[in-house]
Write a structure and sequence with these properties.
- This protein is of the alpha+beta class and 327 residues long.
- The protein has 2 domains: 5-12 and 168-320, Poly(a)-polymerase, middle domain (Orthogonal Bundle), CATH 1.10.1410; 18-162, Beta Polymerase, domain 2, CATH 3.30.460.90.
- The protein is built from 10 helices and 8 strands.
- Strands 1, 2, 3, 4, 5 and 6 form a 6-stranded mixed β-sheet that branches. Strands 7-8 form a two-stranded antiparallel sheet.
- Helix 1 packs across helix 6 (182-195) and helix 6 (182-195) crosses helix 8.
- The longest helix has 24 residues, at 19-42.
- The protein is globular, with a radius of gyration of 21 Å.
- The model has no long low-confidence stretch (mean pLDDT 92).
Amino acid sequence: MRFDNQQLSHFIHKIKLQPENMGKYRDQLANLKKRLETKIAQDDSHGLKVTKYLIGGSWKKHTILRPTGDHPIDIDLLLFVEGDSNIQNDLKKLYGFIVDYLVSIYPQKDIRKEYDAQGNNKSVTIIFSGTGLEVDIVPVVPLDNLPDYVWQPSRRGGKKYITSVSRQLTFSLAHRKQNASYTAIVRAIKWWRNYKELYPTDDEPGLSSFAIELITAYLDEQYGVEENIEEGIIRFFQFVSGASFPIIQFEAAIKHVPKSFDPPIYVGDNTNNENNVARRMTEDKWAEIVSEAEEAFDTLNMAIARNNEGDTIQEWKSVFGPTFNIK
């Protein structure tokens, strides 16, 4: 039995952050933004300084899920740091500056406990009481020769890469406008990823939200826009579990995919093909993801073959967990 978009929208509604619950997070975020704006406006120093900020991630891309015990609401806030042409090569100094900067804005919060003194963090996290909101502060360094592009530290290993967050957001917006079901499909896959515990952690690689967004967008670009939510979800699982996962790259991105790379898959950043967003993926973890995707693909095809609503729902629940329903 097939489910149409109206039926599946009930499930999507249950897993997304509800508008009526966004206010409390917006208030805390607005307070942070106000403090940043004041600090930026009053900073007349001539050395390192924050010149602007930008909200990124799932919050800005409209693909955020409702919070659960293991997955609180988290928002990416990028701080653009200028004043030292070589700061991107000294991540310890960069993070030290950002931590001091944040402490001056929020002296009551224990900012330093989230900071890796070796500069191995992609971000410093501010956790707000009451809501549990986590704001990941990501320092970036603008490139003089590439407008809109920045150096961004990698979360591990003290490395950095070139990307454009503003163009990532533009890319996401374009796909949301082109496909009214894009965010629904992305949210469903992210929920499946979390339910099957395939998400990345500090200790293990996994299927990142950005990778899910890029794969979904790539499928729309290569095989046609799929506005049917059921078909879009099944297509994702079929693609990921296929015998040969292709190198994913985007025409509008700068640079080229390297001739050789170590990870088992390559998912190019839509702004820079040289940047593999699946760089941490291992053979074992990818095999686990492929196995779960294959199981999901087979199960949802079995669901289509079921003759009644109850049996069909049970098949979907085995993929997405007890939260799934169509009413």
